[in-house]
């Protein structure tokens, strides 16, 4: 199985002295996705621009680093990844709610 993450050790959080299997950004995104069951359980519906806005910091952080305009750091990677993941949870619960309304 291929994990779509560069896993560069300096960009990973370390646990017990060893780099984790995912970079700080990917790990935080997955943590954010853990919010999905809660968002679904409480039928959290948001305007679709909300998850889009929540993704913007990650996109800016990722691309400005890729273009070598600046170098990011793990706390920024973690925060922007978490924001993105939680935003995706809102997106999923909103889309699920729209689908359920059509089915009813
Ligand atoms: Zn990654």
Describe this structure in words.
The protein has 104 residues and is mainly α. The protein has one domain (24-103). It is built from 4 helices and 2 strands; from the N terminus they run E-E-H-H-H-H. It has a two-stranded antiparallel ribbon with strand order 1-2. Strand 1 (14-15) and strand 2 (18-19) form a beta hairpin. Bound molecules: zinc ion. Zinc ion is lined by residues 5-6, 22-23, 25-26.
Summed up, the domain count is: 1
Structural class: mainly alpha
Placed side by side, the strands forming the largest sheet appear as 1-2
Bound molecules: zinc ion
What is the string of SSEs from the N terminus onward?
EEHHHH
Give the number of helices: 4
- How big a fraction of the residues is strand? under 5%
Overall pLDDT metric: 94
The rough form would be described as elongated
Helix content: 55-70%
* Radius of gyration from CA coordinates: 16 Å
What is the terminal-to-terminal distance? 39 Å
Strand segment tally? 2
Ranges where pLDDT stays below 50 over 5 or more residues in a row are: none
Explain briefly what this protein structure is.
This protein has one domain.
Keywords:
104 residues, two-stranded antiparallel sheet, 4 helices
Topology:
Elements: E1 14-15, E2 18-19, H1 24-33, H2 36-41, H3 49-66, H4 74-103
Antiparallel strand pairs: 1-2
Helix pairs in contact: 1-4, 3-4
Zinc ion binds at residues 5-6, 22-23, 25-26.
């Amino acid at each position: 199985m291929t994990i779509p993450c560069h896993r560069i050790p300096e960009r990973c959080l370390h646990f017990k002295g060893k780099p984790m299997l995912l970079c700080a950004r990917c790990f935080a995104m997955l943590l954010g996705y853990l919010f999905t069951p809660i968002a679904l359980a409480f039928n959290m519906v948001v305007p679709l621009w909300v998850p889009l806005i929540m993704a913007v910091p990650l996109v800016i952080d990722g691309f400005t680093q890729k273009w070598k305009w600046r170098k990011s750091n793990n706390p920024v990677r973690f925060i922007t990844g978490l924001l993105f993941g939680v935003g995706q949870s809102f997106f999923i619960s909103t889309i699920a709610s729209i689908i359920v309304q059509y089915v009813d």
